[in-house]
């Protein structure tokens, strides 16, 4: 029978045993990782690793830095002696494999610039003899493969792989495929840029839409007040100056706080109320808790403008607009309601030209497919447009 | 305890008033208004009152006084740290978190590390912490209704659950700033007015302390009749002359081995100090007529009434370790000292409560309402002031309770001391009025915190678990339905568990919720906001290890209260017992260690961390955030 051990000793022994077992499992796992798979499987894995490491890099665009990183990946993973990337102005980066004789070739890059650019302009894979015109005895590079990177039908860059002897068909194939992979990344990057630019231009278009008829109407209204009520006219003019400054400022700011958006709406309604007098009633129901919520710029004002147009201008010539923002846990619900004519059933409001479709697209783009405009309307019974804005979404911030 | 019609009226009135205020506040906006909308932004002092209103739970209103009455000086760490937690919030969290713009802690976890999977972990912890915090509110609800109306504990929990859940579901008792601020005013009023009346009648704190110092043991202020039931345990610190109405069988179990010097080790978590001894042990005893009960433990085996004279030493129930007043008035008294490791216990308690405030899910969401970081910091400062003003008073109730209502020691109802004392203010009508006021305050305390917690829990269940993972395509209607179902579900689970936690003190239960928050969300927020090299795996592992260890330790302690073998094991290893009952001193550093070590071992900071740090720390007026309207 074993002598009774004090519990501290038991604990110590147990700890020691656990540590040993952990170390054993660790060693096993490491060995397994190193002896993983057959030769082909490992080759495949290497290729995939290269593809994923190259993919992220060029998504940020073509620069000396990103080119350097891509070339390093190419040289380590594909076994070419050296590689270079050119953009239409000349060499961006050059990378030779460690310890290869091509290391000093980067000094000759300027000399071959014209030859490479001419080869790339052909938009096809080109084999080309290094130092063909002026032989450089110290350079042991034999030839290069120039693979143009095409985005659309434009050559945006060229990949050059260097070889110590004349490259075989598989080397040509590799260079062509690499160029295709890199070009795909550049295309994706360009598509993303275009999408962002589209969103910005839509915003700009919205701002521009406000301008013509609204400026005309407001100035006419103010003109009407000049004789009857000069003080009010002066006040309105000041407000109008402030409003225009805000409306045409910085088209790049995509988001703002709900408080700012509502101030803008309030100012806008000031002119409309001056214009319509007591025919237009406006009511606000805003929970103060959601005033700091970040919303896409110009999502509420166009809805209000729409409500004014349909609530008043259309037929009865008298109407009420209710603007409400409710605190709904992790979302803020904004609603603009009018008691006007409503939307005829045959009309699909989001497909009409104008602000609604634009707002709907921007909301979906920012917050996801479930967050588009929610429009409820009965002919003769008014229209209500509702937006659900999450209180927080990564990447959405007032800027 | 005798029911009080006035207290019931106070409860009902407060319930009706809260609902009415909620409905009123919902409708207030819909008026014609030319006011500039931005002028309606929530001002820091309103927001601070709302945060204080939501924060002052039953643990602050009832629990602290009850715990002070039981354990004395050591308990003062609770009110001190409940308030001081906001100092850390002010210094480290409020500003950067507001600039970051996150609404909930899961939002921050997801946004800082760009990981929806990390969000799931955070949501899970929100549920755990929220549930732990809901339990003591349930206990307070049961206790308050019991003290006011004499209905059983379970009925009280049921009634309050139904009222609060229907209010949350109908939207009448949601986190509306004005309503919550109003609740704070009610609580401050309800705790101060009765204490001023009591102090005016009994003399100031100095007089009371001197009076307490004169009695080595709490003595009955007037002749009192106790009714005893079979199975009830009395601990008599000294021999007591009693008069029994009829012969009652009992057993005398001898003096507790450590009576009056140190207590049985489990006393310090507020669980029963002594498991029932095996049947048949001790000396049989029949209490009849006038007789003197010997000092020691008496286990009643029959029922009847026993009358003790004025000035007799109070028999203690099994929840409170009897302690001399000298020990009660000293640091490392029965609470910390009862553990056998007073310093370790005290540090652990301080860490849990000080750091846990920052990780409470229903408090941080309120800072979102602030328009900018400046307002957020100002709010935190004002909260500190408001809470400081509140926490002066509950400990005084505990002191007066020891002198004027010591019969609560016998019935194990020290948590009700705040509710009972105001009735003693003469004349009777004033006493009734004050007890109505205090019942209303108690209702405000557990109802506002309970509703805030239910909204947090229902949000996690309905919006995150249902709306994001089960049915991401769900429309607003389905999400609202899920929110309501989530609220009802959370309340049901909490009410069910609330029935089980009756033996634990309210403040001890709340302390556990704080300990879990301190071990998980506090390190995440501090390092996430201030250390750019924190990586996603490190944060996730740190949160899981810290939160998991703290929860495990606490659950072990709770289970031990009902499992004698485990209890006996813990009694032998008292360091382990302390660390399990108050885990923060181990789990908080452990979580920090995990995060720092793993981040340094595998440095892979998340993408765009520089931009995020800039967003969190650059003052708004530097103009790095270009505002829509330049001023």
What does this structure look like?
The complex is a heterodimer of chains A (399) and B (631). Helix content of chain A is 50%, strand content 20%. With 399 residues, chain A is an alpha+beta fold. In chain A, strands 2-1-5-4-3 form a five-stranded antiparallel beta sheet, sandwiched between helices. Chain A has a five-stranded mixed beta sheet with strand order 7-9-10-12-11, with helices on one face. Chain A has a two-stranded antiparallel ribbon with strand order 6-8. In chain A, helix 5 packs across helix 7 (258-276). Chain B is an alpha+beta fold. In chain B, strands 2, 3, 4, 5, 6 and 7 form a six-stranded antiparallel beta sheet that branches. At the A-B interface, helix 7, strand 7 and strand 9 of A face strand 1, helix 5, helix 18 and helix 19 of B.
Topology:
The complex is a heterodimer of chains A (399) and B (631).
Chain A: H1 7-34, H2 39-59, H3 64-78, E1 82-87, E2 90-96, H4 109-121, E3 126-129, E4 143-151, E5 154-163, H5 169-228, H6 230-247, E6 255-257, H7 258-276, E7 280-286, E8 294-296, H8 301-313, E9 319-328, E10 331-338, H9 355-367, E11 374-377, E12 383-390
Parallel strand pairs in A: 7-9
Antiparallel strand pairs in A: 1-2, 1-5, 3-4, 4-5, 6-8, 9-10, 10-12, 11-12
Chain B: H1 5-27, E1 31-32, H2 44-55, H3 58-71, H4 77-100, H5 105-113, H6 116-149, H7 153-170, H8 177-202, H9 205-214, E2 224-228, E3 233-236, E4 240-252, E5 283-293, E6 296-300, E7 304-308, H10 325-328, H11 334-337, H12 342-356, H13 361-364, H14 373-391, H15 394-404, H16 407-411, H17 417-420, H18 428-470, H19 476-500, H20 506-530, H21 536-562, H22 564-572, H23 574-581, H24 584-601, H25 609-617
Antiparallel strand pairs in B: 2-7, 3-6, 4-5, 4-6, 4-7
């Amino acid at each position: 029978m074993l002598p009774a051990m004090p519990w501290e000793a038991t604990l110590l022994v147990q700890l020691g045993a656990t540590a040993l077992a952990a170390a054993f499992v660790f060693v096993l796992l490491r060995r397994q990782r190193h002896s993983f798979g057959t030769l082909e499987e490992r080759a495949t894995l290497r290729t995939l690793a290269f593809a994923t490491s190259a993919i992220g890099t060029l998504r940020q665009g073509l620069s000396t830095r990103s080119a350097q990183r891509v070339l390093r990946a190419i040289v380590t993973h594909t076994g070419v002696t050296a590689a270079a990337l050119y953009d239409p102005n000349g060499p961006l980066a050059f990378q030779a494999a460690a310890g290869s004789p091509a290391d000093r070739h980067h000094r000759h890059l300027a000399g071959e610039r014209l030859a490479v650019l001419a080869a790339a302009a052909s938009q096809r894979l080109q084999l080309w003899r290094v130092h063909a015109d002026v032989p450089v005895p110290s350079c042991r590079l034999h030839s290069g493969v120039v693979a143009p990177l095409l985005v659309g039908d434009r050559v945006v860059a060229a990949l050059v792989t260097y070889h110590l002897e004349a490259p075989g068909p598989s080397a040509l194939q590799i260079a062509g495929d690499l160029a295709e992979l890199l070009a795909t990344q550049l295309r994706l990057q360009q598509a993303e840029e275009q999408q962002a630019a589209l969103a910005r231009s839509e915003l700009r278009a919205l701002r521009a839409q406000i301008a013509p008829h609204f400026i005309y109407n407001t100035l006419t209204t103010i003109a009407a007040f000049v004789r009857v009520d000069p003080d009010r006219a002066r006040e309105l003019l000041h407000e109008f100056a402030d409003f225009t400054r805000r409306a045409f400022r910085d088209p790049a700011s995509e988001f703002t706080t709900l408080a700012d958006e509502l101030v803008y709406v309030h100012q806008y309604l000031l002119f409309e109320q001056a214009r319509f007098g007591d025919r237009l009633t406006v009511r606000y129901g805003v929970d103060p808790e959601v005033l700091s919520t970040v919303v896409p710029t110009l999502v509420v004002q166009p809805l209000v403008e729409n409500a004014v147009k349909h609530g008043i201008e259309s037929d009865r010539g008298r109407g009420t607009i209710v603007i409400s923002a409710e605190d709904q846990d992790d979302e803020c619900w904004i609603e603009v309601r009018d008691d006007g004519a409503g939307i005829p059933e045959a009309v699909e409001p989001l497909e009409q030209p104008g602000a609604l479709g634009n707002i709907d697209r921007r909301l979906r783009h920012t917050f996801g497919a479930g967050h588009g405009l929610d429009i409820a309307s009965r002919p003769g019974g008014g229209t209500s447009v509702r937006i659900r804005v999450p209180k927080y979404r990564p990447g959405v911030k007032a800027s | 305890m005798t029911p009080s019609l006035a207290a019931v009226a106070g409860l009902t009135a407060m319930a009706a008033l809260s609902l009415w205020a909620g409905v009123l506040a919902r409708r207030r906006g819909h008026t014609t208004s030319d006011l500039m909308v931005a002028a309606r932004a929530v001002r820091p002092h309103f927001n601070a009152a709302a945060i204080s209103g939501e924060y002052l739970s039953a643990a602050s209103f009832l629990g602290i006084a009850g715990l002070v009455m039981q354990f004395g000086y050591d308990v003062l760490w609770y009110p001190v740290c409940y308030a001081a937690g906001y100092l850390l919030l002010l210094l480290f969290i409020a500003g950067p978190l507001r600039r970051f713009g996150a609404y909930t802690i899961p939002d921050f976890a997801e946004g800082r590390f760009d990981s929806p999977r990390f969000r799931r972990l955070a949501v899970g912890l929100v549920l755990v912490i929220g549930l732990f915090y809901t339990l003591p509110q349930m206990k307070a609800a049961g206790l308050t209704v019991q003290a006011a109306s004499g209905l059983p504990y379970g009925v009280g929990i049921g009634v309050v659950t139904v009222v609060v859940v229907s209010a949350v579901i109908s939207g009448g008792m949601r986190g509306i700033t004005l309503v919550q601020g109003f609740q704070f005013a009610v609580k401050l009023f309800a705790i101060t007015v009765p204490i001023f009346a009591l102090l005016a009648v009994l003399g100031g704190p100095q007089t009371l302390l001197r009076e307490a110092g004169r009695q080595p043991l709490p003595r009955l202020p007037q002749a009192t009749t106790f009714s005893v039931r079979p199975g009830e345990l009395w601990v008599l610190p000294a021999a007591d002359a009693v008069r029994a109405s009829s012969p009652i069988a009992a057993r005398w179990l001898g003096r507790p081995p450590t009576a009056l010097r140190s207590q049985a080790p489990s006393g310090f978590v507020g669980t029963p100090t002594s498991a029932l001894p095996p049947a048949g042990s001790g000396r049989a005893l029949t209490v009849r007529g006038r007789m003197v009960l010997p000092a020691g433990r008496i286990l009643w085996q029959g029922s009847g009434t026993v009358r003790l004279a004025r000035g007799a030493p109070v028999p203690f129930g099994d929840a409170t370790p009897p302690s001399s007043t000298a020990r009660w008035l000293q640091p490392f008294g029965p609470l910390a000292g009862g553990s056998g490791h007073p310093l370790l216990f005290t540090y652990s308690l301080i860490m849990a409560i000080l750091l846990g405030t920052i990780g409470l899910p229903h408090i941080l969401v309120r800072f979102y309402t602030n328009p900018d970081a400046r307002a957020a910091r100002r709010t935190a400062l004002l909260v500190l002031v408001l809470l400081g003003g509140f926490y002066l008073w509950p400990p005084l109730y505990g002191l007066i309770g020891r002198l004027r209502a010591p019969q609560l020691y016998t019935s194990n109802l020290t948590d009700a001391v705040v509710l009972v004392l105001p009735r003693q203010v003469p004349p009777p009508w004033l006493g009734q009025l004050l007890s109505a006021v205090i019942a209303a305050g108690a209702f405000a305390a557990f109802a506002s915190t309970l509703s805030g917690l239910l909204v947090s829990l229902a949000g996690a269940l309905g919006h995150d678990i249902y709306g994001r993972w089960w049915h991401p395509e769900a429309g607003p209607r389905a999400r609202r339905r899920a929110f309501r179902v989530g609220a009802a579900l959370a309340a049901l689970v909490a009410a069910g568990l609330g029935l089980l936690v009756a033996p634990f003190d309210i403040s001890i239960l709340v302390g556990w919720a704080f300990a879990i928050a301190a071990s998980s969300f506090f390190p995440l927020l501090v390092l996430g906001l201030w250390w750019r090299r924190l990586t996603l795996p490190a944060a996730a592992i740190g949160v899981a290890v810290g939160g998991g260890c703290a929860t495990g330790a606490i659950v072990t302690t709770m289970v031990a209260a009902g499992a004698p073998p485990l209890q006996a094991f813990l009694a032998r290893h008292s360091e382990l017992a302390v660390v399990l009952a108050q885990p923060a001193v181990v789990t908080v550093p452990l979580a920090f260690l995990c995060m720092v070590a793993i981040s340094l071992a595998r440095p892979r900071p998340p993408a765009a961390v520089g931009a995020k740090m800039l967003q969190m720390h650059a003052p708004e007026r530097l103009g790095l955030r270009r505002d829509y309207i330049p001023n």
